[in-house]
Specification:
The complex is a heterodimer of chains A (554) and B (322).
Chain A: H1 2-34, H2 39-42, H3 54-57, E1 69-73, H4 94-102, E2 104-108, H5 120-128, E3 134-136, H6 145-151, H7 166-174, H8 176-181, E4 205-210, H9 211-216, H10 225-238, E5 245-246, H11 259-262, E6 271-274, E7 277-280, H12 285-299, H13 312-321, E8 326-330, H14 331-340, E9 348-351, E10 377-379, H15 386-394, H16 399-407, E11 414-417, E12 420-423, H17 425-428, H18 436-443, H19 462-471, H20 476-479, H21 488-513, H22 519-532, H23 535-550
Parallel strand pairs in A: 1-2, 5-8
Antiparallel strand pairs in A: 3-10, 4-8, 4-9, 6-7, 11-12
Chain B: H1 2-29, H2 31-49, H3 67-70, H4 80-86, H5 91-109, H6 111-122, H7 126-137, H8 144-155, H9 160-167, H10 179-207, H11 211-219, H12 224-248, H13 256-262, H14 268-271, H15 274-284, H16 288-317
Helix pairs in contact in B: 1-2, 5-10, 6-10, 7-10, 8-13, 10-12, 12-16, 13-15, 15-16
The chains are: A alpha+beta (554), B mainly alpha (322).
Chain lengths: 554, 322
C-alpha cells in the first residue's frame, strides 16, 4: 500500500507540477506586469509618473498605491473570503481594510506552509520553480537556513532594498535585539517577520490552581515545591480527589510549557542558555531531582495516572469539573474552565514560575519567542517589482499600520483616548453578540502574518488577565535558546542524532515519572546511553549556532 | 549448435513478423477497441511507470531546487540513507515492533472476517442477518481519528474498560501507558473496525456456492459443522489464499496514522514503528530521500514476502496469485 501511495503521490506531484507551471506561466505574466514599476512611483500624491525617479520620490511616497496593484502570495484560501463571517463585519474585516489602505490586492497561488515545518504542498511549490511574489513560510526551518533559501534562488536578500521598508528599519533601530533575531549569521535580512512585540504575548500556558479551594482550606498559592506538594495532598484529601494535579505529558518537553514548574530545579527541556553557554536539560543536575519529584507525585497518586494519554480537552474538563485542583493549561482552556463555571464560586489563580532554591530565581516559563521565523513573508526571486512588494509589506510596521493591525479601524473598534488607543464598546459589547476576542480577530490583523503583535491581553476579560499576569516571567528571555540557523552539515548531524536523543529522552522521562525506572538506579545508564547517541555532537552544534547568533550585529 | 541456435532465432524472428502483421491487420479492423484501451495504457505509463524513475531519490540527497535528476548521489555509492537507517540504534526495535504488529494483525485479524462471514451465512433470519451485517460494517466508516479518540478515552484509568474490569474486581490500569497492552489494543481495535467490511468478500464467495452441494451433503447426513468444514471452506479456499498472500505483502506496512494517534512516549517500546519514526524524523528535516529509502526498503521486503507466500501456496494448495 505504502509504495502504491508513494507512486501515486509522485505521479500527482508530476501532474501538479506540470499543470501549475502551465497555469502559472500563463497567469503570472499579466499580474506581475500589472504591478511593475512606474505605478509605485506615480502612487499617491505627486504627479511625476516616471520610472527611475524613486530616490527623489522616496519622501513623498504614501499609501495607497494608485492605481491599485496586485501581488501574489502562497495561501490556502483567499484572505478576502468572508463567506464564514457575519455580514455585519464585512466592511471592517481586516483584510479588506488592509487592501483598501495599501491599494494592493493579494492573489493566492499555491499552498500555505506550516508555522514551523514546511508543508508538503509548499515544497511542491518550491520544486515547481514558479513562485508567487510573496512567500510566507518559516525560512529558518529551510534546510541550511534562510541563507540557503537565498543561495538556492527561492527568495531575495532584502538588505539592499532597505529604503523601501523604512518603517520596519525604524522598528529595528528601536529594538536592536529584534534586529539580531531576524538576520542571518552573515547579517542579511530575508523576510518581513512576525514579531511578538508585546512581552505578554510570549506566554500563553502555565499552571492554574483552584483559588476557591485554597481559600476554603486557608492556603496560599504555593511558591515552593514543598508547598505545592502540601496543596496537592490537602486537595486530594479534603475534596476526595482521585488525583490533585493533571496536564498533558507532552508538556514536559513541548514549548517549555511545564518550564514554570521545572524552574524550581533549574531544568527545562530541551535546550536553554545560561550566560552564553548552551545547556541540554537532561544533562543538568536538576533533571534528576525533578524526575524524582514527579515520580513521587505519581507514586502517591497526586499526579493524574492518565496524564500520558490525555489531551487538552480532557485536562480542561477535569479542571473545570473539579476532578483535579491544579493543572497546566493554555490560557484559552483556562478561560473555557472559568466560563463553564460562570455564576458559581469557581475561582482560579495562575501559579508563577517556581524559584530555584539554589539560585534564588526562577529562570523559566512557557515561552513563544519574539521571533522564531514562523509566518514571516519573504519576497521571491520571481517578483518583478520588489519595491512595491516591500512597500506593501512595510505598511503594517508603520505607526498607522501597527495601530490597525493591533486595534482594527479607528472610530470603529478603537479610539484614541489621551493619545492611547483604546478599544471601544464595539469590541466589548458587539451588537452581533460576538465575544471581544472574535471581534478583534475580524477587525485586526493580529497574528500569524508579517505583523508585530501588540496588546496581547488588551481585549481579554479581567479574569483571564489576572491568570495570565502570573505566568509571565521576564527571566525566560535571557535563557531561551533563540531561533538560530544551522549549516547543512550541522542540520544533518542534528537530524541524525537528535531524533534518537529526543525519542530516548521523551521515553525515559515517561519511564522515570511513571516509576518504570528509578532515578537513583537508572540515571547513570540513561546518561551514558545519551552519550552513545552523540549528545555531545548535537550540543556542540547548538553551541556553535548560538555563538554565531550572539555575534550578529545589533 | 550454431545452426540450431540460428534456426531458432529465425523461427522466432518469423513468429515475430507474423505477429506484427497480424497485429496491424487487427488494429485496422478493430481500431475503435484500440482507441478505447489507449487511455488506460497511457494512464499506466504516465501514472504507474513514469514515476518509478523518481525512486532514484532514495539514492540521492534530494533537493527541490536541484530536481530529481540534478541532485547528487549520497555517500556509500548511493546507499547512504539505507545504511543510515539500518545502523540506527533504534532500527532493531522499529523492525521488531512493525513486524510483530503486522504478524498479530494477520494471526488474529485475518481469520476473524472469515469466521464472521461463515457465521452470517449460517444465519436463518434475514432481518437479523441484515442488522448484524450493518452493525459490523459500521465501524469501518468511522474515521481513524475518531476511533482512536474513543479508544484513548476508554483506556483511561477511569475509562470504560476499567469500569468493566472493576465490576470483576480488577485494579484500574491506564492501558495506553503499559507497553504490554499496546499490541492487543491496536490489533483488537483493528479487528473491531475492519471485520465487517473485510467479511464482504467472503460472503460473496460463500454466496456463489451452489446450494445443491449443501443439500447433497445434508442428505448424506452431514451436520452443520461438517458442512462448513467440507463444503464451505473448500469452496472459499481460493479466496482465502489470495487474500492471505496479499495481506502478507503488507507485513512491513504499519501505517503511522493510527499509531501516532494512540501512542505516547511511555509505550514507545512496543508502539514505535518504522513509519512513525520516519514521521518524527521528517519533522526535524524534510528529508524526502531518507523516507523514500525506507519506504523502498519496505516495499522490496513486502514484494519478497508476496513472492515467498505465493510460492509456498502454489506448492501446498495449488492456488496462487501468479
Amino acid at each position: 500500500m505504502n509504495q502504491k501511495k508513494l507512486l501515486r503521490v509522485i505521479s500527482m506531484i508530476m501532474l501538479l507540477v506540470l499543470t501549475t507551471s502551465l497555469l502559472l506561466s500563463c497567469q503570472s505574466t499579466p499580474t506581475t506586469t500589472g504591478s511593475t514599476t512606474g505605478q509605485t512611483t506615480t502612487g499617491a500624491t505627486t504627479t511625476k509618473g516616471t520610472t527611475g525617479a524613486t530616490t527623489t520620490e522616496k519622501e513623498v511616497f504614501s499609501y495607497p498605491f494608485d492605481p491599485p496593484i496586485k501581488l501574489t502570495i502562497n495561501r490556502d484560501n483567499s484572505p478576502y473570503d468572508v463567506s464564514n463571517i457575519d455580514p455585519a463585519f464585512h466592511d471592517v474585516f481586516a483584510w479588506n481594510v488592509y487592501k483598501e489602505k495599501t491599494g494592493v490586492e493579494l492573489e493566492v497561488v499555491g499552498a500555505s506552509s506550516g508555522a514551523y515545518e514546511m508543508s508538503e504542498s509548499f515544497l511542491l511549490l518550491l520544486a515547481s520553480g514558479d513562485y508567487p511574489d510573496l512567500m510566507q513560510a518559516n525560512w529558518i526551518r529551510f534546510p541550511g537556513g534562510p541563507q540557503a533559501a537565498m543561495d538556492d534562488g527561492y527568495i531575495i536578500e532584502l538588505t539592499p532594498y532597505q529604503e523601501y521598508f523604512p518603517a520596519l528599519m525604524q522598528v529595528y533601530a528601536e529594538h536592536p535585539d529584534w534586529y539580531q533575531m531576524v538576520q542571518t549569521d552573515d547579517n542579511k535580512l530575508y523576510n518581513f517577520p512576525y514579531l511578538r512585540g508585546d512581552p505578554d504575548a510570549h506566554t500563553e500556558t502555565g499552571m492554574v490552581i483552584r483559588q476557591d479551594w485554597l481559600d476554603a482550606l486557608n492556603l496560599e498559592v504555593p511558591t515552593t515545591i514543598d508547598e505545592l506538594t502540601e496543596v496537592f495532598r490537602a486537595f486530594k484529601n479534603e475534596y476526595g480527589l482521585a488525583s490533585a494535579f493533571t496536564f498533558e505529558m507532552r508538556w514536559l518537553w513541548l514549548e517549555w510549557a511545564s518550564a514554570g514548574l521545572s524552574s524550581a530545579y533549574g531544568y527545562t527541556y530541551p535546550f536553554f542558555v545560561n550566560d552564553g553557554e548552551v545547556k541540554f536539560g537532561p544533562l543538568e543536575p536538576g533533571f534528576k531531582a525533578f524526575m524524582a519529584q514527579m515520580a513521587s507525585w505519581y507514586e502517591e497518586q497526586l499526579l493524574d495516572p492518565d496524564f500520558p494519554s490525555i489531551n487538552k480537552a480532557t485536562v480542561q474538563s477535569k479542571f473545570a469539573s473539579g476532578e483535579v485542583g491544579v493543572a497546566i493549561q493554555q490560557l484559552n482552556n483556562v478561560i473555557g474552565c472559568i466560563e463553564a463555571n460562570a455564576g458559581t464560586d469557581y475561582k482560579v489563580s495562575g501559579v508563577p514560575s517556581f524559584k530555584n532554591p539554589a539560585t534564588g530565581d526562577a529562570m523559566f516559563s512557557h515561552y513563544y519567542q519574539t521571533y522564531d521565523g514562523s509566518f514571516g513573508v519573504a519576497i521571491s526571486t520571481k517578483c518583478d517589482d520588489i519595491e512595491s512588494a516591500a512597500r506593501f509589506l512595510d505598511y503594517l510596521y508603520t505607526e498607522e499600520g501597527q495601530l490597525f493591525s493591533t486595534y482594527g479601524t479607528e472610530g470603529v473598534s478603537y479610539e484614541m483616548v489621551n493619545g492611547e488607543p483604546t478599544f471601544t464598546d464595539y469590541l466589548w459589547n458587539n451588537p452581533t453578540g460576538a465575544t471581544p476576542g472574535e471581534v478583534k480577530g475580524r477587525v485586526s490583523m493580529g497574528a500569524n502574518y508579517a505583523v508585530i503583535r501588540w496588546a496581547f491581553t488588551g481585549h481579554m476579560l479581567d479574569y483571564a488577565k489576572v491568570v495570565h499576569k502570573e505566568w509571565v516571567n521576564e527571566n525566560m528571555a535571557n535563557h531561551v535558546y533563540p531561533a538560530t540557523t544551522f549549516t547543512s552539515i550541522e542540520a544533518a548531524i542534528v537530524s541524525r542524532n537528535f531524533t534518537n536523543i529526543d525519542t530516548y529522552c521523551k521515553e525515559s522521562i515517561a519511564k522515570f515519572v511513571t516509576g518504570q525506572w528509578n532515578t537513583t538506579t537508572d540515571y547513570d545508564a540513561f546518561i551514558s546511553q545519551l552519550e552513545s547517541y552523540g549528545v555531545q555532537s548535537v550540543l556542540d552544534v547548538y553551541q556553535a549556532a548560538y555563538d554565531r547568533f550572539a555575534a550578529r550585529s545589533r | 549448435m550454431a545452426q540450431h541456435l540460428s534456426t531458432g532465432y529465425l523461427t522466432r524472428q518469423g513468429k515475430l513478423q507474423r505477429f506484427k502483421s497480424r497485429l496491424v491487420t487487427d488494429m485496422k479492423h478493430n481500431y475503435t477497441l484500440y482507441l478505447l484501451v489507449l487511455p488506460v495504457i497511457a494512464y499506466y505509463i504516465v501514472f504507474r511507470y513514469f514515476p518509478i524513475g523518481g525512486i532514484q531519490i532514495a539514492f540521492k540527497d534530494y533537493k527541490p531546487a536541484l530536481g530529481i535528476f540534478g541532485s547528487p548521489w549520497t555517500i556509500h555509492y548511493g546507499f547512504g540513507h539505507f545504511i543510515d537507517f539500518v545502523t540506527n540504534p533504534y532500527f532493531e526495535r522499529l523492525l521488531r515492533n512493525t513486524v510483530l504488529i503486522s504478524f498479530y494483525s494477520l494471526l488474529f485479524g485475518f481469520p476473524a472476517p472469515i469466521v464472521l462471514a461463515i457465521m452470517l451465512s449460517e444465519l436463518r433470519g434475514r432481518k437479523y442477518k441484515k442488522v448484524v451485517q450493518t452493525l459490523t460494517y459500521f465501524p469501518h466508516f468511522i474515521s481513524t481519528v475518531v476511533v482512536c479518540g474513543i479508544i484513548t478515552q476508554f483506556a483511561l484509568s477511569d475509562g470504560l474498560f476499567n469500569q468493566i474490569g472493576q465490576l470483576f474486581g480488577a485494579q484500574p490500569v491506564s492501558f495506553l501507558q503499559k507497553p504490554e497492552y499496546f499490541r492487543t489494543i491496536y490489533v483488537g481495535s483493528g479487528i473491531w473496525q475492519g471485520v465487517g467490511w473485510s467479511s464482504i468478500i467472503y460472503l460473496a464467495a460463500i454466496a456463489s456456492v451452489n446450494s445443491e452441494v449443501y443439500e447433497a451433503a445434508a442428505l448424506d447426513g452431514a451436520g452443520r459443522m461438517r458442512r462448513i468444514i467440507h463444503v464451505t471452506l473448500p469452496h472459499i479456499e481460493p479466496t482465502i489464499v489470495l487474500m492471505l498472500i496479499m495481506s502478507v505483502g503488507n507485513i512491513m506496512n504499519v501505517g503511522s496514522e493510527k499509531v501516532l494517534l494512540l501512542y505516547n512516549p511511555s509505550i514507545y517500546e512496543t508502539a514505535d514503528v518504522i513509519s512513525t519514526y520516519v514521521y518524527r524524523r521528517g519533522l526535524l528535516e524534510f528529508n524526502f530521500s531518507f523516507s523514500t529509502a525506507v519506504n523502498l526498503m519496505n516495499s522490496v521486503i513486502n514484494f519478497l514476502m508476496v513472492l515467498g507466500a505465493n510460492a509456498i501456496s502454489r506448492k501446498v494448495s495449488e492456488t496462487s496469485l501468479f
